[in-house]
Automatic annotation (TrEMBL):
<dbReference type="InterPro" id="IPR013108">
    <property type="entry name" value="Amidohydro_3"/>
</dbReference>
<protein>
    <submittedName>
        <fullName>N-substituted formamide deformylase</fullName>
        <ecNumber>3.5.1.91</ecNumber>
    </submittedName>
</protein>
<keyword id="KW-0378">Hydrolase</keyword>
<dbReference type="GO" id="GO:0016810">
    <property type="term" value="F:hydrolase activity, acting on carbon-nitrogen (but not peptide) bonds"/>
</dbReference>
<dbReference type="InterPro" id="IPR032466">
    <property type="entry name" value="Metal_Hydrolase"/>
</dbReference>
<dbReference type="Pfam" id="PF07969">
    <property type="entry name" value="Amidohydro_3"/>
</dbReference>
<feature type="domain" description="Amidohydrolase 3">
    <location>
        <begin position="48"/>
        <end position="539"/>
    </location>
</feature>
<dbReference type="InterPro" id="IPR033932">
    <property type="entry name" value="YtcJ-like"/>
</dbReference>
<dbReference type="InterPro" id="IPR011059">
    <property type="entry name" value="Metal-dep_hydrolase_composite"/>
</dbReference>
Length: 542
C-alpha cells in the first residue's frame, strides 16, 4: 500500500525541509520533490495534495498514564473547579446522571486548591460526605500525589485515629481525633483499593478511547506507566489485554510500557520467569515492554516533592520520601543486573540528588548504556544539571507543568532555586539527553500547549509578557526534536522513528499551520489535520 504526500513542507531536521514524502507498506520509502515522487508512485498509490501544509514526525509522549486518561474521560472531571462547592456539585450531578457507573463509588480526578476562588483550603472528608455517605468517594488532586475521601471510604479502608501510618505516605488526623480524609503519596494507593477495580472489558474500552483521544492531537507513540501503577499486580493479565487490542486491530498508536514493581523479588521473577518477557510479540510490534518505573517523591503543588531545604512557604516541611534510598537502590540494582532501563519520578532537588547517587553506582565512566532516566527533574541547580549531563542520564521533561508551577515555584522554593529550575535550555546546551511528555492526565495529552510552554515560558494565558526566566526558552526546532527524536531515543528507537527519514516508520502528522514560522503565542492552538501511524491514517479532522 502506497501513500504520497506532496505539495507539503516536510520537516526533516533543523532548518531542512522537503516537498514530498512517499510511504510504502508502513515505511517512509522516499523523500524528495513532488515531481520526483509522482513519477515514483505506483498506479494504485493514494496521492494527497497537502496544499503547502507542514508535516512533522509523529509526536511521542515520553511519560504519561494512558489508562488513567481513559478512566478520566468517563468519570467526573474536576479540572478548573473554582471552589469546593463546585467539586461537590459536579460529583453529585455525575452520580445522578450515571447510576450504573457510580454504584460502587466515585473516583474523580483533577482538583487543585490553588485555583480556587476565595478560600484555597484542601477539601476534607466532611466536604466529600456532602457528595455521598452511601458510597465511597475519592477525589484525586491533579498531581496524583494527594487524595481526599469521604467517611465511607475511610470506614471501608479500616483505619481510625489510632491506626499506624503507611510507609511513604500519610493520612491526616483531624481535630476530632479521626482521619480527616486527606491522604498523600503511598497512602493513596491503599485508599484507591476501596473502590472495586474495573472489569477487563471496561479497561479495554478505556484504553481504546484514550488512544482515540491521543491520536487526535498528533500523538503516535506513548511511553505509558500503567502496568503495576494503575492496576497493582496481574501485569501479565493486563499486558495480554493490550496485546489483544492490537491483535484485533483496535490499537491506534505505538505503546511502550513503563512498569512499576513493588520489590526486587517481584522484578526478578518477572525478568526471569514472567510471561511478559517470553517474546510473545514481534520485533516491530506496536505494543512493547520497557523500563522499570520508580517513584522517589511527590509533587510541588501538594508540597510533597523532596527538597534539600524547608519549603519557603511551609517551614519544617521538606516533602515526603515515597521510598527510601535502600529500597530504590535494591530495585535499581536488580533492574540493572537484568539489563533493564530505569526511569524514576523526581521533582524536588533532594529527590534528584538521591536518585542520581544511586544511578552513579550503576553508570561506569560516564556511560549509561541502559539509558537510565529522570522523569520531571523540575527543581535543580546548575551543579546538578552539569552532573546529569556528564553522566549521560536522560531527562523526561514536561514543559506544560510551567503553566501552573511558574505561579508557585518561587513561593515554594525561593527565587534563587526557582531561577535554575525547569532548566530546559541549560540542560540542552550542556548536551543533556532530553525528551518531552505530558504526564497525562496530570496535564492534557495535547503536545502543542507543551511545546508552547517550552518555547515561550509563558502560561496558557500568555503571562508573563517576557516569559518566566526567559533565558530557559528553547527554540521551536529543539522543542519539536525533543518530542520526536528525543522521545524515540528514550525508548531505544531512534533508528526507527522520531524523524521523517527513508527507512523509518511512517508516523507523521499534518498540521493546520506552520509550527516553525507561526507566532509562538499560537503554537498552543495548533491542531492536527491528519495523524498517520505505520502508514495507516488513524485520525483525520472532519
Amino acid at each position: 500500500m502506497e501513500t504520497l504526500f506532496y505539495n507539503a513542507k516536510v520537516y526533516l531536521e533543523r532548518e531542512k525541509f522537503a516537498e514530498a514524502v512517499l510511504v510504502r507498506d508502513g515505511i517512509i520509502a522516499k523523500i524528495g520533490t513532488g515531481d520526483e515522487l509522482l513519477k515514483e508512485a505506483g498506479k494504485d498509490c493514494k496521492k494527497i495534495d497537502c496544499q503547502k501544509k507542514t508535516i512533522i514526525p509523529g509526536l511521542n509522549d515520553s511519560h504519561m498514564h494512558l489508562l488513567v486518561l481513559g478512566e478520566s474521560l468517563q468519570t467526573v472531571k474536576l479540572t478548573n473547579s473554582k471552589s469546593i462547592d463546585e467539586i461537590i456539585e459536579r460529583c453529585r450531578k455525575f452520580i445522578k446522571e450515571n447510576p450504573e457507573l457510580s454504584k460502587n463509588g466515585v473516583f474523580a480526578i483533577g482538583w487543585n486548591q490553588d485555583l480556587f476562588e476565595g478560600d484555597k483550603r484542601i477539601p476534607n472528608r466532611h466536604d466529600a460526605d456532602k457528595i455521598s455517605t452511601e458510597i465511597p468517594i475519592i477525589l484525586r488532586r491533579v498531581c496524583g500525589h494527594q487524595m481526599v475521601s469521604n467517611t465511607k471510604a475511610i470506614e471501608m479502608l479500616g483505619i481510625d485515629g489510632s491506626s499506624e501510618q503507611y510507609e511513604g505516605g500519610t493520612f491526616e488526623i483531624g481535630e476530632d481525633g479521626y482521619p480527616n480524609g486527606i491522604f498523600t503519596e503511598n497512602a493513596c494507593r491503599h485508599l484507591r483499593k476501596v473502590i472495586p477495580e474495573f472489569s477487563l472489558e471496561d479497561r479495554e474500552r478505556m484504553a481504546i478511547e484514550a488512544m482515540k483521544h491521543a491520536v487526535s492531537f498528533g500523538v503516535t507513540s506513548v511511553q505509558s506507566n500503567d502496568l503495576g501503577a494503575v492496576v497493582l499486580g496481574e501485569k501479565d493479565k493486563y499486558f495480554k489485554m493490550f496485546c489483544k487490542i492490537y491483535e484485533e486491530g483496535k490499537g491506534l498508536l505505538r505503546y511502550h510500557h513503563q512498569i512499576t514493581f513493588q520489590s526486587p523479588e517481584e522484578l526478578k521473577e518477572y525478568a526471569e520467569n514472567g510471561e511478559l518477557v517470553k517474546g510473545n510479540y514481534p520485533e516491530d510490534s506496536w505494543v512493547t515492554l520497557g523500563p522499570l518505573k520508580l517513584f522517589k517523591d511527590g509533587s510541588l503543588g501538594a508540597r510533597t516533592a523532596m527538597l534539600e531545604n524547608d519549603y519557603a512557604d511551609d517551614p519544617g516541611n521538606r516533602g515526603e520520601e515515597r521510598f527510601d534510598e535502600k529500597y530504590i537502590e535494591d530495585l535499581c540494582k536488580a533492574a540493572d543486573e537484568h539489563g533493564m532501563q530505569i526511569v524514576t519520578h523526581v521533582i524536588g532537588d533532594a529527590a534528584t540528588n538521591s536518585v542520581m547517587k544511586t544511578y552513579e553506582k550503576l553508570i561506569k565512566d560516564g556511560k549509561n548504556p541502559l539509558r537510565h532516566a529522570l522523569i520531571h527533574c523540575q527543581i535543580t541547580n546548575r551543579k546538578m544539571l552539569e552532573n546529569i549531563a556528564e553522566k549521560n542520564v536522560l531527562v523526561m521533561y514536561q514543559p506544560i507543568f510551567l503553566d501552573y508551577d511558574m505561579h508557585i515555584v518561587e513561593s515554594r522554593c525561593g527565587k534563587e532555586l526557582a531561577s535554575t529550575s525547569y532548566a530546559f535550555n541549560t540542560l540542552d546546551k550542556l548536551g543533556g539527553k532530553i525528551s518531552y511528555g505530558t504526564d497525562c492526565p496530570v496535564e492534557g495529552c495535547n503536545p502543542f500547549p507543551n511545546i508552547y510552554c517550552a518555547v515561550t515560558r509563558k502560561d496558557l494565558k500568555g503571562s508573563p509578557a517576557e516569559g518566566f526566566y526567559p533565558e530557559e526558552c528553547v527554540d521551536i526546532y529543539t522543542a519539536v526534536d525533543a518530542y520526536t527524536e528525543g522521545s524515540a531515543y528514550a525508548e531505544f528507537m531512534e533508528n526507527k522513528k522520531g524523524r521523517i527519514k527513508e527507512g523509518f516508520y511512517a508516523d507523521m502528522v499534518i498540521l493546520d499551520r506552520d509550527i516553525f514560522t507561526v507566532n509562538p503565542l499560537e503554537i498552543k492552538d495548533i491542531q492536527p489535520l491528519l495523524t498517520m501511524v505505520g502508514g495507516k491514517v488513524v485520525y483525520e479532522k472532519k
